[in-house]
């Protein structure tokens, strides 16, 4: 299919997104976390594998991958300088935009032959990571992106409604490197439906 084009990066280095542990959300935010949304946000298994089970088709649109300035929070999480390799993609399922994903990793990880991060192309990073035998995943943090945020605006440009969209992120460790992966569920995602596919 022909994908719409977007400026890279979607999330600027000045972003101040409020990532936090699920239990730290305020009462109003907790009320937004339906059972379906929690099932997608808090699942520690591979999102790529889950999407492939849930939908008939799965495709990766690469918005961009380059060494650029990252947010202050990302630099802190990875103990990096202000620049790192950033990869942003949209995951399309059944020709609908389901997930916006942003991955951040140090240049040293890009050079790690066993990880082959420089040769990913339109292959899903998550599937690649979960094939690493020494992979470990840190705690999951969540974030609500308002409709007027850069991610919220991306969601609307992709045909989604003006709404708060939720994301999750965690830090993966493999082959001596850390990789920060954030995944935001767009309007078309089953995360916002009342019934999970597994229940249908």
Automatic annotation (TrEMBL):
The cross-references to InterPro entries, in alphabetical order and at most eight, read: Chorismate--pyruvate_lyase, Chorismate_lyase_/UTRA_dom_sf
Any GO CC annotation of this UniProt entry: cytosol
Q: What is its EC number?
A: 4.1.3.40
Tell me one GO molecular function of this protein: chorismate lyase activity
Q: Which residues form a coiled coil?
A: none
Its GO biological process annotations read: pyruvate biosynthetic process; ubiquinone biosynthetic process
Q: What class of enzyme is it?
A: lyase
Which coarse location class describes where this protein primarily resides? cytoplasm
Q: Which residues does UniProt assign to the signal peptide?
A: none
Q: Part of which pathway? A: Cofactor biosynthesis; ubiquinone biosynthesis
Please state where this protein is localized.
Cytoplasm
Which reaction(s) does the protein catalyse, per the Swiss-Prot or TrEMBL entry?
chorismate = 4-hydroxybenzoate + pyruvate
List residues binding substrate.
87, 125, 183
Pfam families given in the database record: Chor_lyase (PF04345)
Q: What superkingdom heads the lineage?
A: Bacteria
What keywords is this UniProt entry annotated with?
Cytoplasm, Lyase, Pyruvate, Ubiquinone biosynthesis
> Could you tell me what this protein does?
Removes the pyruvyl group from chorismate, with concomitant aromatization of the ring, to provide 4-hydroxybenzoate (4HB) for the ubiquinone pathway.
- Protein family: Belongs to the UbiC family.
Spell out the protein name for this chain: Probable chorismate pyruvate-lyase
The species this protein belongs to is: Pseudidiomarina taiwanensis
């Amino acid at each position: 299919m022909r994908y719409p084009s977007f400026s890279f990066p979607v999330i600027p280095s000045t972003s101040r997104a409020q990532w936090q542990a699920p239990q730290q959300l305020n009462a109003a935010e907790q009320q937004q976390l339906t059972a379906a949304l929690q099932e997608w946000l808090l699942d520690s298994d591979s999102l790529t594998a889950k999407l492939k089970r849930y939908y008939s088709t799965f495709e990766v649109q690469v918005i961009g991958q380059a060494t650029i300035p990252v947010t202050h929070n990302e630099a802190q999480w990875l103990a990096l300088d202000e620049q790192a390799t950033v990869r942003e993609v949209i995951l399309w399922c059944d020709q609908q935009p389901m997930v916006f994903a942003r991955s951040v990793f140090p240049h040293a990880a890009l050079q790690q032959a066993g990880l082959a991060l420089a040769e990913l192309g339109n292959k899903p990073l998550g599937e690649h990571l979960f094939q690493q035998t020494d992979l470990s995943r840190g705690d999951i943090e969540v974030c609500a992106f308002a409709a007027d945020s850069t991610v919220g605006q991306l969601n609307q440009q992709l045909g989604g409604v003006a709404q708060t969209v939720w994301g999750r992120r965690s830090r993966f460790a493999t082959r001596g490197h850390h990789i920060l992966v954030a995944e935001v569920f767009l309007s078309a995602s089953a995360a916002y439906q009342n019934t999970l596919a597994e229940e249908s």
